[in-house]
Specification:
Blueprint (H helix, E strand, L loop, with lengths): L1 H21 L4 H18 L3 H16 L9 H16 L5 E4 L12 H15 L3 E7 L3 E6 L5 H14 L5 E5 L8 H9 L7 E7 L4 E6 L14 E5 L6 H11 L4 E4 L9 E5 L4 E6 L1 E4 L16 E2 L5 H43 L3 H18 L4 H13 L3 H14 L4 H13 L3 H14 L4 H13 L1
Parallel strand pairs: 3-4, 4-7, 7-8, 8-12
Antiparallel strand pairs: 1-10, 2-3, 5-6, 5-11, 9-10
Helix pairs in contact: 2-3, 3-4, 6-7, 7-8, 9-10, 10-12, 11-12, 12-13, 13-14, 14-15
Length: 459
């Protein structure tokens, strides 16, 4: 019964929509639509003078009978769009059929709209279509659009986590139609220094300019030096173009492919009547380096090729760049490790002389510098500590494990290792305290449980 009722509702809805579509626009409706579009452009369009020219042009075309043969909603919308763009040359300015029945914005069920929006985002994976590791430690990230940042940030963070250690990255924007500038900023923040001014948007309303700078804090690793290659096509549009333009003007990527679509003016949809809506650009992008944007001209790639061949063209370049980048990272790592080795040798001598306090003052700054540079980790310090234990240099091992305890106080492993060194030094009570702390942080640590039992039984 319920299925039958649903079918009737669907058939009724389709019938209504078909009837609405087949009902021709009257001359009065067309005139009213043209007048409404004119007033909206006068009120909203970022370029007021061009908006007036568009309005005048529509009225002339209406009087000349240009729209007389357009009887369907889609046909009339397409004709209006053609005439508007012939004057404005603004590819964002488009008239479209409204997606519903009565009312300027369709039926308007907020709960259902929210559910449908969430489901569409889920199906689209928040714009992240593909994340892949390619041969040569090259990452591939295919981004189709940019949803609101507050909704998509988790997905983007997870995608970039997968690519965190690549030696080169290819970003595919060939099918990217645009989206939210806040999410574009979040992406850019992973590949540019904090507070980098990447774009501004001027809004006609309140005559204000909004700056977009890369974020100070991101949920992941910032890769400001990794080579980036961006693939473009003539379908890359709006926010996709901003992403490419940001990377191009900041000299952070090599662009490969086709000149992009050429839409740089953001805005929103406004109802014209029950059947039609118009997207009106209410702002314009201003790049801080060029002082302009890509409106009408698109973003020029550094290496021109067809969209179909862009990836094939990028791969050998990315492989070469990855090899160079990896070699440079090894060189930097070796350079950064040198003073740490020197500090370890000095600390070892000081410990042998019983001057452990001085050894700590030598060791800690060098290890901290290594942490900052990314060449020292909790694991590497732990390994250094055990290497000292194997050489029976218990005092030096204690200093190394103590460093880890101070720097990684939420790690169960550091207390376990420190407890072992203290036990070997005969500092049983301290060893038990650290094993207990390790067990508190990780109740599954059977080694800590066993060692506590052994030492307490011995007492």
């Amino acid at each position: 019964m319920r299925h039958g009722l649903l079918l009737l509702v669907l058939l009724f809805t389709v019938g209504c929509l078909a009837a609405q579509e087949s009902k021709p626009f009257s001359a009065e409706e067309k005139k009213a639509a043209v007048e409404r579009i004119g007033s909206l452009l006068a009120e909203r369009y970022v370029f007021e003078d061009i908006g007036k020219q568009c309005s005048d042009h529509l009225r002339k075309q209406l009087a000349a009978g240009v729209f007389d043969n357009e009887t369907t909603t889609q046909g009339f919308a397409d004709a209006l769009t053609r005439e508007l763009q012939s004057v404005s040359h603004d590819k964002h300015m488009r008239v479209r059929p409204m997606p519903g029945g009565p009312g300027p914005q369709g039926p308007g069920d907020p709960l259902l709209d929210a559910v449908n929006f969430r489901l569409s985002r889920n199906a689209n994976n928040n714009g992240v279509a593909r994340v892949e590791m390619l041969e040569g430690n090259i990452g591939l990230l295919d981004i189709r659009n940019f949803p609101p940042a507050e909704l998509a940030r988790g997905t983007v963070t997870a995608a970039l986590k997968v690519l965190e250690h690549v030696d080169a990255l290819i970003v595919d924007l060939r099918r990217n139609g645009g989206g939210n500038p806040d999410l574009i900023r979040y992406y850019c923040s992973f590949f540019m220094p904090p507070n980098t001014h990447i774009n501004s948007l001027y809004w006609r309303e309140r005559d204000r300019t909004q700056e977009f700078r890369t974020l100070e804090a991101i949920d992941g690793k910032r890769r400001t030096e990794v080579p980036v290659f961006v693939l473009t096509s003539n379908r890359t549009f709006s926010g996709g173009e901003e992403f490419a333009y940001n990377f191009k003007t900041q000299k952070r990527a090599t662009l490969i492919g086709e000149v992009t679509g050429g839409g740089a003016n953001p805005g929103g949809m406004f109802p014209v009547n029950e059947k039609l809506g118009i997207f009106i650009p209410t702002g314009r992008a201003i790049n801080p380096i060029t002082g302009t944007n890509w409106e009408g001209v698109g973003v020029e790639p550094d290496i021109k090729t067809t969209a179909d061949e862009a990836l094939e063209k990028a791969l050998p370049l990315a492989k070469e760049a990855a090899v160079r980048y990896a070699a440079e990272q090894r060189r930097k790592a070796e350079e950064a490790v040198r003073p740490i080795r020197t500090a370890l040798e000095k600390a070892e001598k000081l410990v042998a002389e019983g001057r452990t306090g001085e050894a700590q003052k030598v060791l800690e700054p060098a290890l901290d510098k290594g942490l900052e540079q990314g060449v020292v980790t909790e694991m590497s310090v732990n390994m250094l500590g055990y290497a000292s234990l194997q050489k029976n240099n218990v005092p030096l091992a204690i200093e190394l494990f103590l460093f880890n305890v101070k720097r990684f106080p939420q790690s169960a492993n550091v207390y376990d290792s420190y407890g072992e060194a203290l036990m070997k030094a005969g500092r049983t009570e301290e060893a038990i305290r650290n094993y207990r702390k390790s067990l508190e942080l990780d109740p599954t640590n059977e080694n800590a449980r066993t060692m506590i039992r052994r030492m307490t039984d011995r007492e």
